[in-house]
Each structure stands twice: as structure tokens, then as C-alpha cells.
Amino acid sequence: MEQNHFGRLRALAHLGAGRSAAFRYVALAVSWLVLWRLSALMQYDPHASLWFPPAGLSLAALLVMGWRALPVLVPCAIAVTFWIDRIYGTHFPTRELLASGVLFATVHCLSYGLGALVMRRTIRRNASPSTPTVVTTFLLVSALASLCATVLGIRALEATGMIAPSTPSLWLPWWIGDLAGALVLTPLFVGLLSWRYPQIEPWLGGLSFLPQSRGSGSYAGKLALEILAVVAVLAADAYFHSPETAFAMFFLILPQMWVVYTESPFRGALSIALVSTAIAVLVALFGITRDALVYQFAICVIAASAYFGFAVPALVAQNRHLSELASTDGLTGAATKTHFFECSERELADSRSQGLPVSLLVMDIDRFKAINDGYGHAAGDQILLNLVRTLRHQLRQSDLIGRFGGDEFMVLLPGLALDRAEATAERLRRALTELRMPGPDLGLSVSFGVAAIGDGESIMEAFRRADERLLAAKRSPRAADETVT
Ligand SMILES: Nc1nc2c(ncn2[C@@H]2O[C@H](COP(=O)(O)OP(=O)(O)OP(=O)(O)O)[C@@H](O)[C@H]2O)c(=O)[nH]1
Q: How do the domains of the chain map onto residue ranges?
């Protein structure tokens, strides 16, 4: 009975999985055909569209799904050949259309498929690809794959009699249109597809397309500003009838970079796609296709430059992480020796300018080796961690805690002269004896060396004096008596 239920459940799960895969394929096909229809609406010459969004979807699908995308892309590419025939009213015989469709599908899928293959191989060879590597590979692959699709696509149409042989002006708008579609939309579609196919994430380098929970209010404002700028340039171009106005579109790189530097890669890619769509749709709506090539180039240049901008937030985060590693002790979170002395120099200069005293404490756990040997290094680590927590709890925010190494720590006490610094050391010593220890009869004993930093004295000189006092305290009978075994 139970087996029966389990079997039914499994069958249901299989059915669900099959459906969701079929649904994905249908959604991909519908999106491809809708994008193709949109690009056909933006044609300014036969076979020359302002941009060709299906190129971006094909490249993204082949990148994420591999050759599994072919059963969707090939029929779509054949179908649109028949659709073109109806749109242009050319009424070619079905056999010729089929031959032309198969040739176009082969050329399109082969060009973008090989491009995707090269990109996957290049990036996979690199264990952790950097954002500039991913972006450079993507730009080169997009340019070469779209050029290949253009040259072979024109040859295919000529061979099947769909266009007159040697139409020289066609290749540049075709190529830039395909390139614009691939450059602008591939990252966005990769982002959308990678939610369904998470295996793509690891080889995207610093470009994580996973959604982020940052506020969307300011992002919407930035997008609105960009669209406003697009409308302003295109309206001016349409109104003044001067082709020079079109070049103002290149200024859009500024707000685009702002979005890329301040938002997640997915939001950056979405913004590039929205702005480019707005340019393509409005150029078609305003009927200013005479400047189409300028706008095509603007779309490509803005997108290509913005992708390199993706590297900046990733590098800033990486830098922050590295400087944290260099300045903070990994176990206790106290400042490292170098960072402690750097910060102390600044603090000392600041306090001296205000006429305030500064003191330095150096401390060392007594017989720490015995704790490690008796209770293990994990117990020793816990004591170091608890010691720094206690120091933080006992000291002021402005006091700086550093780890010199091993079981030796130092504290900079801005604003405290020697007497108050010694009182602080005594308070800390007492608080540390209260720390929970691994053994029942064990108490934590810590020795201190205290020094006030004299006028004109350096931190290192004061540190040496404090360290001598620490050694003297270590040699004193009290420290020797307080055993920790
Ligand atoms: N658990 C742990 N032990 C550490 C760490 N760094 C250094 N130690 C140990 O700290 C001990 C320091 O030993 P010593 O310098 O002889 O100091 P001590 O045993 O406290 O002797 P006195 O200072 O003379 O009282 C060594 O056993 C080191 O292995 C650490 O990060 N974690």
C-alpha cells in the first residue's frame, strides 16, 4: 500500500518535472518568436533591423542549456523564414522557403552555438574567472558570432534567391543589429535562465545574477532618468531633423555607468536592456531611421562599456575583503600588528594635536602553553576569543585592541595618562580572572606592561618600554605563583 502511494508520488513528480521542462521549451520558443516579430517591426531596410534581439536569446540559451536549446531554436528559425515571406508578400514556393529556412537555422545556430562553445570552454578553463575575463570573452564571442551569422546568413539568402546577390550595404546594419541584440540581451537572458539552471553561476566569475534584496526605489528612479534622457535625445533628433543630435545618445553612458557601479549585475543588465529597447522602439516610432546606424552603434558602445563597469563593484568588494583579512586577526577579530601600529600612529597624532595623553598596554597570558597542552588548541582558541570579547566589553569604543601574535595582545588607550592606564590594566586583569575556563580549578592569569607615550616618543619606543615592564611582571612572584595546571 505504502509502496503504491510512493510509486504514485514518483510518477506525479516525473510528470511535473516533464511538464516544467516542456514549459521551459515552449516559453523559450514563444519568447524567441515574439522578439523576432518585435525586431521585424523595427526594420529600416529589408533584412536590416535596428537590432536583432533573438540573437541575444539564442546565444544565452546555447550558453546556459548547451545544444539542448537546438530543438527550440532550429524550428523557430525555420518558422520565421515563412513569416518573412508573408510579411514581405513575396510568395516564394514552399520548397524554396523550407530550404532557405533550414539554411538560415543552420547558419544562425552554428554561429551562436560555436560562439557559446568557445565562451564556455574559455571560461571553464579558468578556475575562478575574473569579471574582466568573462566580459572580454563575451564581447569577442558576440562580435565574431554575429559577424559569422551575418556573412553566412547573407550568403544563405543569396543562395536560395531570397535576396539579390551582392547587396553590399546590407552586411554592416545586419551585423551591428545582431551584435546589438547579442550584447544587450544575452547577459539579461543568462541572468533569467540561470535561476532555472543554477549550474551557470560558478563560471560567471564575479558576475552573480542572483537577485539581491537591495531597495528598488532608487533603482526605479535611475531607470526613469535614463528613459527620460533617451526620449529627450530622440525627440530633439525628430524635431530638429539634424543627424548630429543622434550622437548625444552616447552621453547615456554616464547614467548607465552610475547604475552599473551602484546596483547588482542583474539590475545593470536589465537597465542596459530597457534603455536599448527604449532606443530601438522610439527610433521606429518617431520614424528617425535615417540615423539608425548611429543609434545601433550607441547601443553597442554603451552596453560594451557598461559590462566592463561590472568589474568595479566586484573589485571593490574583493578589495574590502582583502583589506579586512590584512587588518583583522582571523581568530579574535583584534587588529593585526601592522594595522594596530598604523591606526595607533594616527590616533597618537590626533590626541597630541588636542593635547591629550595616550597610553599603551601590552599583555600576555601566563602559562598559556600549559592550557593548550592540557586541554587542546580548540580550548586555547576559545580562551583567546573570550579574552578579546572581555576586553571589548571592558574598554571604550575609542580604545584599540591588537594581537601581537600568539597569546600577546596590546591596547592603545587614547586620553589616558599612566595612572589611569594602570588602573585600567588592573580592572582588566580582575575581569579576566572571571573568564570561564576549561578546567574546574583553572583561573586565567594575565600579565600586563603599561607605558604612557611620552612627548616626541614613537609608538614603537613606548611599546618597547611596555614590553620590558611586561617581562618584569612575568618574572615577578605573583605571575609565577598563579599556575594554571
Ligand atoms: N590555541 C592557540 N594557541 C596559540 C595560538 N598562537 C600561539 N599559541 C600557543 O601559545 C603558546 C604560547 O606559549 P609561550 O610563548 O611559551 O607562553 P606561555 O606558555 O603563556 O608562557 P609565559 O608567557 O611565559 O607564561 C604556545 O603553545 C603556542 O602554540 C593560537 O592562535 N591558538
A: 1-210, 214-327, 331-481
User: Which pLDDT band, with edges at 50, 70 and 90, does 2 fall under?
Assistant: very low
CA end-to-end distance (rounded Å), the chain = 64
Could you tell me the distance, in angstroms and rounded to a whole number, from the CA of residue 156 to the centre of ligand 1? 77
Residue owning grid cell 552555438: 113
Q: What confidence tens digit (pLDDT) does each residue in 175-191 have?
A: 988 998 999 999 888 87
Looking up cell 590594566 gives 425
Specify the CATH superfamily of domain 331-481: Reverse transcriptase/Diguanylate cyclase domain (3.30.70.270)
Give CATH for domain 1-210: 1.10.1760
Q: In 287-397, which residue ranges form alpha helices assigned H by DSSP?
A: 292-309, 311-327, 337-353, 368-375, 377-394
Dihedral class, residue 399 (left if φ above 0, else alpha if ψ from -120 to 50, else beta): beta
Reading the block at residue 338, the C-alpha cell is 601592522
Hey, what's the cell of 16? 511535473
Q: What confidence tens digit (pLDDT) does each residue in 215-237 have?
A: 667 889 999 999 999 999 999 99
Which ligand 1 atom is nearest residue 381's CA?
1
**C-beta 407 within 6 A of ligand 1:** yes
